[in-house]
């Protein structure tokens, strides 16, 4: 940037002689300069023009001054800072303003330079650098200064020691930038090294966020690559949330187990699971440094011992595997696992056209095994999260708390199918059972039952069997109807507007071919009921058809849990709470592991503000489907409503980690932080909801409410204006306006919008009613609206976190 260099040279000529540019980062350009007053080399760092334009210079300089007070041997000090304003006498017309800060120029190199050259560092050197940086972090954290951008580029190596640069700069930029920083598209921090809480926009970071970043740096020094990488920032963040901490020993076998354990701890997704302080982390590393030196001296002998031990283990595993293959009956009932995850089956040789068929077979096997007494099956959505992840059985077992994993491959060619399935123990990775079936397509039902029977036998549990030989209990013997049903389920699980439309088409064709197909009717009902939440289709347009399909399914097969769950949802969408609860209870009685029914029941209790009951049911849903992000979000919301703010927010954040861009946890986090009186974080997430859910009127409304109540009235008014501009018939518009008006303090217009919602769209208004203040308790108009939703006005108007006496229940 020659023009910038020339202007900067002229503007700072009285204090610094700019010599040359020495580097560029995500936020600043660095110049080597001479401090004319003190006759020393310095690094002048000039913020990028668009970033400088977005910041408030006065606040930035005030915030950065905190860094000047840090005095530590491993922290590079701040020498000077300033802003060159347009009024500067040297400023020429059309030139830029500059925000800059000055630090000593360090002779040496950055850790990034070292890693670029050597890729991996010796173990003792990596530990020394990490301990010195941890020492600097501990000093700063004690003074309530968080770095927020620990990475190899900000760790300088000179004289055999590490010094941390840019301390407090990220904090100052974030504090000064506010919403304007978001508008520039720039983010504070570096995705590869960001903690999970920082990557989702959490404003209230503490020192454990810096420790996570330092853990990433240590991992890279040892492994030669960071723990999570990807082609985009979004890909890196998604990996961090969805994948377990990668084991350093797989990339560098000389890393001692205790150091690996320390890395796993410092890289934990939840801050509470990391080291509590930098000093604690530093102490663990100091101990490990001595252990590493001793291990290095023993390495040659250790390699021979490890090789011999490895051969013995392989031989032993082979023997055990052979015994397991001879007969599944040889396993004792006491040792056989009684819990199981069925992962989505895959297609052979990348046959994507039949991916729906492979997934469908796995789901049907899951349904069959769910009827086995004494066998617990992991929820479908949780199992789906491992699709294509190449996770080990041990990893799946740890995540889902199951004793075995069933995997399979399906090859379909013409009227022939080949299904290969394998059951693996999650405790030791041993194969408990495996088999292949080559059959005609018409025998697919029998294959599914054979697999279920074989798995039950391997797990030492009794299999009840299907309804008829060759006809699944799900309800059809028409192969084409069954194929259409599997396609419908496949598209339903994708949950986009387009996929749900495809699902409806397939399922409607399935029930047209076989009108007695109960499972297809149940799936059709759930697809209708899901469509409005993923499009602008009004619930009123689909609810009658959904109700009819659910009733048909329950009539055809009263023992089908999915049918009763669908019928319960249809009743709940019509605010027929007692009928909905009865159907959910029936579904749970038929399938005690029915995570969907538990979730729906808990969600309904949240809407009714029966919070303690909601927590009970949502915890059951989490038990059986632990990786379903919506369950986590609403369990967290229920805990927040009960006044357990920290626990509630932590659970909602877990949901967001599972699905980083999902609207439900984002929206609930904004509301939860508001109720917890953490306005900065509430506003951060309200803005994210408005950005991600711009096509969802009720989400815009809740965002407007939170922004208005946290001091951002202008933003809230802009969102309300967007809602007002929508056609009056837009689904959830009235509810969105009710929230927005209430946030702005216009109670009269809020009540009018609520009345319109009650008379027309009858939507998500009730789910978030408790973020509203106790403004309506004595209002007859509010009471009338609540009666329209068949809700208790006093219960709904009471402040969140305040116990409410149970309403009288109908006999």
Structure description:
With 811 residues, the protein is an alpha+beta fold. It has 5 domains: 2-48 and 78-104, Phosphorylase Kinase, domain 1; 109-164 and 190-291, Transferase(Phosphotransferase), domain 1 (Orthogonal Bundle); 339-473, Rossmann fold (3-Layer(aba) Sandwich); 475-583, Alpha Horseshoe (Serine Threonine Protein Phosphatase 5, Tetratricopeptide repeat), CATH 1.25.40; 661-811, Serine Threonine Protein Phosphatase 5, Tetratricopeptide repeat (Alpha Horseshoe). It is built from 33 helices and 14 strands. Strands 9, 10, 11, 12, 13 and 14 form a 6-stranded mixed β-sheet that branches. Strand 12 and strand 13 (416-425) form a beta hairpin. The protein is globular, with a radius of gyration of 30 Å. 49% of the residues are buried. Mean pLDDT is 81; it is low at 86-96, 178-186, 290-335, 466-473 and 802-811.
Sheet with the most strands, sense and barrel status: 6 strands, mixed
CATH architecture type of the largest domain: Orthogonal Bundle
Task: Point out poorly predicted stretches.
Answer: 86-96, 178-186, 290-335, 466-473, 802-811
Anisotropy-based shape: globular
**Helix count, per DSSP?**
33
Q: What is the highest CATH level, the class of the largest domain?
A: Mainly Alpha
Mean pLDDT: 81
Tell me the CATH topology of the largest domain: Transferase(Phosphotransferase), domain 1
Cα(first) to Cα(last) distance is: 78 Å
By secondary-structure content and strand pairing, the structural class works out as: alpha+beta
Number of domains: 5
Cα-based radius of gyration, to the nearest Å: 30 Å
User: Percentage of helical residues?
Assistant: 40-55%
What share of residues are in beta strands? 5-15%
Name given to the CATH homologous superfamily of the largest domain: Transferase(Phosphotransferase) domain 1
- Number of DSSP strand runs: 14
